[in-house]
Design brief:
The chain has 419 residues and is of the alpha/beta class. The chain has helices spanning 15-31, 45-49, 66-75, 80-88, 119-131, 155-158, 171-184, 203-209, 222-229, 235-250, 323-361, 367-376, 380-392, 398-405, and strands at residues 38-39, 60-62, 97-100, 108-109, 135-140, 146-152, 188-189, 261-268, 271-277, 284-290.
């Protein structure tokens, strides 16, 4: 929700505004549904964070300083300001999270950069963005002067050229690396649809409408997009494929839980780096992003790699490590986050079933209540039966059914089974 302004007023961040969000939060909490309140407040840091309240307002808050900070970092190959800002960001409480993004259907908001970047740094960034094809939307100050409110440009074009890479040799790598940062830091990463395909400025839409935001609102023709995604040499395919790979890696790492521990490291101005640790402290990830167009050598003694632990490059897992190392790594993940948790939950389920059966014997519950309870559970055998019926009625393709359930072996718990 974008709720900075109370209806009928021109005032920002009124106490009444926060009370409305608290009321909505109370209602949502009573509904016991998976409903998330997200506030969209394009404001400087403290005002933006105020919408978490005391864990009684928004669940998630848009992390508005990220777009200008990350863009500035890559345009000038210097992570100093981003690192300093990240070090000062308070961790969100459990149940709250930052919504991390660097592009949206609007422009690149400049207000959140105030107080984080100097006026000189902001001016320099706007000059570079103008060279890269940006238009600018303005806001009026109380003294009547105008100031840039947002830069209107697609993210890919914003990062295409830098003072150190004037020919755009590393444009796609720079673009993907910028997203690696929001994939690594505390919170939940969010991706603008057009960014998935490294979409450029829509100059035609801007020229015909005069609306600056249309530069970054290209409307894809579905068949044209699919055609480009089938061409492995197209930038759209390369970008989308990189996103799919990065997201698939991130989503299975417990250390990238939205509320997992984060420490920002100050290693080098050309490297943005964070250490993430899973909430159970079983997994640590050092996420290092080279923000420059040069190869940077880093002494690993600068980061806290525990000597008796096995360390791997997640992004090169299928390329650079030996089969033995890969087996060790994957076995450890299965053991820590598959076998042991499953064994614990299965044991609790068996004990719970025994308790319920005893309650029936004691006539504290009857057979109908017991069956209703078991039938209310959304178990895998119920899902299989339901989807199998869909296959028989030609409402679900057999291929999809097998992709979803093909790994499940019948008689898994029968020691005599040959499956």
């Amino acid at each position: 929700m974008c709720i900075r302004y109370m209806s009928g007023t021109t005032c920002l961040n009124l106490t009444q505004t926060h009370e409305i969000i608290k009321l909505l939060r109370d209602i949502v909490d009573q509904l016991e549904k998976d409903i998330i309140i997200v506030t969209e407040t394009n404001l400087p840091k403290q005002e933006n964070l105020s919408y978490f309240g005391k864990n009684d307002e928004a669940h998630w808050v848009y992390n508005f300083p990220l777009p200008p900070l990350v863009i500035n970092t890559f345009l000038f190959e210097d992570a100093s300001a981003l690192t300093k800002w990240s070090m000062k960001m308070p961790p969100a409480q459990i149940g709250n999270a930052y919504l991390n993004f660097i592009a949206s259907h609007d422009g690149i908001g400049m207000r959140p950069a105030e107080g984080v970047l100097t006026d000189k740094e902001i001016k320099k960034m706007l000059q570079r963005l103008k060279k890269n094809g940006s238009q600018f939307s303005m806001r009026k100050l109380s003294n009547g002067e105008e100031k840039v409110y947002e830069a209107n440009i697609s993210l890919f074009d914003a990062l295409k050229f830098t003072d150190s890479d004037k020919k755009g040799k590393f444009d796609l790598k720079r673009f993907i690396a910028a997203h690696c940062i929001i994939l690594a830091i505390e919170g939940i990463p969010a991706f603008y649809f057009n960014s998935l395909f490294a979409t450029k400025n829509d100059e035609k839409a801007f020229a015909s409408s005069g609306i600056k935001r249309n530069l970054n609102r290209y409307k894809w023709d579905y068949s044209s997009l699919i055609s480009l995604l089938n061409e492995k040499d197209s930038i759209e395919y390369k970008s989308y494929d990189a996103f799919k790979n990065l997201i698939s890696i991130r989503k299975v790492q417990p250390a990238f839980h939205p509320n997992a521990t984060q420490f920002t490291l100050n290693l080098d101005k050309n490297i943005f780096s964070v250490w993430r640790q899973s909430r159970d402290r079983k997994q640590s990830i050092f996420a290092l992003t080279n923000v420059s167009s040069q190869t940077i050598k880093l002494n690993t003694n600068k980061i806290n790699l525990i000597d008796d632990e096995q360390w791997f490059d997640l992004l090169s897992l299928n390329k650079k490590i030996s089969p033995v190392q890969k087996i060790f790594f994957l076995t450890k993940i299965i053991k820590d986050y598959g076998t042991l948790p499953f064994a614990g939950m299965a044991r609790m389920a068996f004990i719970s079933q025994i308790i319920l059966l005893d309650l029936k014997k004691l006539k504290l519950i009857d057979i109908t209540e017991l069956e209703n309870f078991f039938n209310s559970l959304n178990l895998i055998n119920y899902e299989i039966s339901k989807d199998h019926e869909k296959v028989l009625n030609k409402k679900l393709k057999k291929k999809i059914f097998l992709e979803k359930y093909g790994h499940i072996r019948p008689s898994t718990y029968d020691i005599n089974s040959l499956n």
